[in-house]
Amino acid sequence: MPARVKGVNVSAAVSLLASATVWTLGAPDAAAQGGWFGEATWIPVDSQPYTMDVGQLVGDERLDVVVGTRQGQILVFENTGVGTGLRLDSEFQVIGEFASVTVGNYLGGEENEIAVAFNSFQAQDSVVVWKDDGAGFVRASGLLSPFTISTSGSGDANGDSYDDIVVTGPTSFVDLFLGGSSTMSYGGTFTVRVHPACGIPESNINTSVLLEDLNGDLNDDVVIAAFNDDPACSPSWRGVGAFYGDGTGDFGLIDWVVRETYDDSPFTRLVTGDFNDDAVVDLAIGSTLLHMYVGPEWVEEPEFDPGISPREFAFLDLNGDSILDLVGGNAGWFFVAQGQGEMSFDVLGYSNAGVAGITLLDVDGYEGLDVVGGEIDKAVTIHQNLLYLDPAGLSEPEPTATPPFAQNPIQGGRLKLSFASLEQGPATAALIDPGGRVVASFPLMVSEGNNDEEVDVGLGVSGSFLLRLSLPSGRVLTQRLISFGR
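User: That's the sequence. What structure does it adopt?
Assistant: Structure tokens below.
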């Protein structure tokens, strides 16, 4: 039985994406100029990636990648460890509304299996385990959940060394399916139905589920992110709840470790880990901002604003300084942020290679971790870590220009920009919406040193945008999201 390796399992909505890849700091192909990651390598696929996970699948010790697309196509990529790393090994299809994939040792085979969760169009099994029989992946075991599924997670709920699966969706229920020798079995249903604020039955909308040890007792717990905007239970709330497991498959009643009212966005992606190096599990939750809570008392840290809504994200040390860094994104943008310690991060830059999923693994055989993303424009993307491809990249060079920043937006359709540059000549500024579309652009004349410009973006433009500045040399700098109102 292979060692358990938990990967990254994500699901995301998708929308329009511009096809070009633009990095905001450093040249996309030269670590010596400040970039941590190279320009995306695209692997075209037939339909939009929707979710992904990693695990040992193709007979060696490297972590491979499995991608699920919105049309129910499951793609297994072997990690070759050479070049850009990934090679399509096999593929298969499920018929239904696709939800998520997880990799684990569910049936006790020599290799890990793939669990696919989806909403069957034929009222058949909605959680199916596929295993490699030597000639490709074949259906090995399946069960039906009566509830709508939108996401899943895996872990060991009952301490038998087989991985198990939890699924949930826009309902008050979580279903547990237990792994075992050659077949899966039903493990129970968890009901989340009573709103403690108003005390009436109602339906939470569950957006993320994990099977992880949250309280440090070495037993996996069922952990959910949920929200409720039922007017009968006003105001709207969001939270993280845990059903604590005893290691035998039994779980207690839900404990809401985080619960708060909100007026911006529900919780989406939920990640656990030790983010402040104190050997205690912490929580990170995506929304409009990134919310982090320090365990075991779940004290909220200052919110982190990466400039775009972090619908998908992952933490790992990317530059070898023993401090966790952060990568994340949404359907329109991807960002990299350097960890400063104590759950603090500084954004290094953005790419408009939007993601439907993110995972971090070594695909090229070098020490540094690379980023693999589910590119929503029908491709899987690989950003190689340039810091380890070029050892000189481990030093921090002086930037050749300072990214622009927007000062207070001026009412009446005008915007004041202040930025510094070592170049001079004609340049272009543009406002880019989160889907990658240019909504307004205007010419500038850049001087060496400090620049102050006031531009007319039009009375009809309002909302949140990325501000992109194209310098005379062709270098492109992109500022974090700004809000502009009429």
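Helices lie at 386-389.
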